[in-house]
Amino acid sequence: MYFGSLALTEPLALNLITLADEYLLPELKADCESYLSKNLKAANLLNVIKATEAAASEKLKERVVSFLAIHMKDLTKEIDVNLIPNKLLSEAILKSSEVNKSL
């Protein structure tokens, strides 16, 4: 049983999110999603994407798509964007174009 009193780190959150999903621990999954969302950066993006897919986390997926949409130009300098699933890239491009239209 999880009582919400865990000091998360990035490696711990990346591992626990999948276990929380598998063992139906929604509070722990939400804590991991929150931690990873707040600490998302180019350096951990690919690992967060893997964890997002493994845990079927829609909340974290939305955050990743937003992050991609905002930082795509800079990311191409920092990581191999070919490693990002095409579906996420497509969603980020759509989101980016929607944001640009509203400006």
Distance between the termini: 47 Å
> What is the helical fraction, as a range of percent?
over 70%
What string gives the helices and strands in order?
A: HHHHH
Largest pleated sheet: none
Flag low-confidence runs: none
List the topology elements.
Blueprint lengths: L9 H13 L3 H13 L6 H10 L3 H21 L7 H17 L1
Helix pairs in contact: 1-2, 1-3, 2-4, 3-4, 4-5
Describe the protein's architecture and organization.
The protein has one domain. α3 packs antiparallel against α4. The protein has five helices and no strands. The radius of gyration is 14 Å and the shape is elongated. It is mainly alpha-helical.
Q: What are the salient characteristics of this protein?
A:
103 residues
Give a quick summary of the entry.
Helices cover 72% and strands 0% of the residues. By secondary structure, the protein is mainly alpha-helical.
